[in-house]
Amino acid sequence: MKAPPMAEPLLSVENLQVQFRTDDGLVEAVRDVSFQLAAGQTLGIVGESGSGKSVTNLAVMGLVPQPPGRIVGGQVRYRGRDLLRLSQRELSRIRGNRIAMIFQDPMTALNPFLTVAEQMTEVTERHLGHSYRQALARSVELLERVGIPAAAERIHDYPHQFSGGMRQRVMIAMALLCQPEILIADEPTTALDVTIQAQILELLKQLQREEGTAIILISHDLGVVASLCQSVLVMYGGKVVERAESETLFANPRHPYTLGLLRSIPRWDGRSEQRLMAIPGQPPNLARLPSGCSFHPRCPYVLERCRRECPPLEPSGHGGDKACFVDVDTVHDTVPTREVSP
Amino acid sequence: MPLLVFLLKRLGWMLLTLWVVYTVSFFLMRSVPGGPFDSEKQIPEPIRRNIEARYRFDRPLIEQYGRHLWDTLHLDFGPSYKLEDYTVNEILAEGFPVSASLGIFALTFALTLGMTAGVVSAVRRQSVFDFSFMALATLGVAVPNFVLASLSVVLFVFVLGWLPAAGWGSLQQIVLPALCLAAPFAGYIARLTRTGMLEVLNQDYIRTAYAKGLSQRRVVLRHALRGAVLPVVSYLGPATAGILTGSLVLERIFFLPGMGSHFIEAALQRDYTLAMGTVLVYTLLLFTMNTLVDLAYCIVDPRVRLEQQA
């Protein structure tokens, strides 16, 4: 299956490299990451904590704390401009306006000292030159869109007067105020109850349908990504290890890490006789990455070559790209991964 | 409505506190040996008895307490025993405005200087500003105010000649004592603000504010400052107490006609009525300030409720 032809990408990240100076030494949080996002597309970025998925997107927003962070190389091209070369001043005209971001924990991501109205109106006042009156009307409109009841009154409440799910709705409304072309959602449902998670995902889906906003969804939850995204990027140890359309990836994973991730999801459809599998070992220490492929110490199909060489990201021959020397089909069922002990 | 309940509750507590302070001070003063009329020269016995009768010293202590408390409740502190021809009320009415202006100026200086230095230090961390402000802050806290006062008199009065050395009545005369009084508090507030600001700047909601495309100035002043000054607000209560006691020293050094000198003199000379008057005024000031601080806390942090504060 071939991916549909991509239009001129809206956002294109090329060979991005980000380092952090820590007490443990230099940490390479993002190593040579590239991807493209077309207008209206939904891209999922999946990986464990520390895989570099959040840092990649903070770099896109120009929000990597520097120091200790440092962007060593690469480009982030948006509408022909390299965002990494822009001054904070120029970047701040794009942030919250053309590219908006929502964060994981709506409890801490909203300012507890300001009312929702105060926090929302300043966005369109800043970017669209609204008066307070216009900004307030626009904010109420968005709050209604995301399903906050009695928005016109509730907008004058403080964040602590809202529930967790409602706060995330407020965050989403705030991000959409200026009708951004790109919405980066960093684990938008992780801190929420399962039932609320489903509602928020449904809301994102609906807004995407109606507004045509391109979304980058960062998550460690494959289920969340599967339900929302057209294409998926799997990250491990600061690198992209697999990239494919989401149907392709879930039906036919080509990287042992992706395979491990998929096998570690409980399935309730009864189709599978497989036991629940865990990926053995620990996520890599980014300050002391293993030689060669950084997944090799945990890989069930490891070859001698994997310990020395880092596999490049290349077409997998199944409609996506993978960074692995092994063809998982040939070894797939011969090497057992470890079962989860009950 | 919660505000009214809060204020009424506070008023109740204040009256109780004043009464306790009054009673404890009264009996403490009387339990100290000596009296207001034990001067060096011998007074003939009949005259002495006359005086004591006039000031009710011949009555039992508990009766004196009751009568004086009754007068105090009618806001009459009685005559001063040492400063003849003056009532305590007159003395307080003269000294209070001086001490209060000094205190308010000092508190204002401490807040503006301390908070500005703290914010700049936090935002420009590890810069020349940060290092020099924090060095100054440490000096301000460490150097006793009488040393600072003497040094600044030498510098600003005798070397530079910018300000007058002492006296009361003009704005120039209040600047130097108020600055000396404020210095340690400004230093402490600078450190509190810097620490608070650094902590707040690491919060998720600050990242959100930047993600919205706001300028650094707006993020710092609108989104970060409130959270950063919460520790400063809590410190205002103790700071007021410190400024009250500190003003006793500075009023002496700069010859200010405030309440401070009366407070010390009255205690040393057993001027019972004047001592009681000053103690009560200081208690009242401190209590009012603490109430204002609690109100300020609710204004700064919307999660704090008045009911909890009461």
Brief digest:
The complex is a heterodimer of chains A (342) and B (310). Chain A is globular.
Number of helices of chain A: 13
User: What's the count of strands of chain B?
Assistant: 0
**Uncertain parts of chain A:** none
Low-confidence stretches of chain B: none
CATH architecture of the domain at 90-269 in chain B: Orthogonal Bundle
Alpha carbon gap, first and last residue of chain A: 38 Å
The overall pLDDT average of chain B reads: 86
* Mass-distribution shape of chain B: flat
CATH class of the domain at 90-269 in chain B: Mainly Alpha
Give the SSE order of chain B as H and E letters. Answer: HHHHHHHHHHHHH
User: What structural category characterises the helix and strand content of chain A?
Assistant: alpha/beta
Strand fraction band of chain A? 15-25%
Distance between the termini of chain B: 13 Å
- Would you identify the CATH H-level superfamily of the domain at 90-269 in chain B? MetI-like
Shape field of chain A? globular
Biggest interface: A-B, 30 and 22 residues
Question: Would you mind describing this structure in some detail?
Answer:
- The complex is a heterodimer of chains A (342) and B (310).
- Chain A has 342 residues and is of the alpha/beta class.
- Chain A has 13 helices and 12 strands.
- Chain B has a domain at 90-269: MetI-like (MetI-like fold, Orthogonal Bundle), CATH 1.10.3720.10.
- Chain B is mainly alpha-helical.
- Classes of the chains: A alpha/beta (342), B mainly alpha (310).
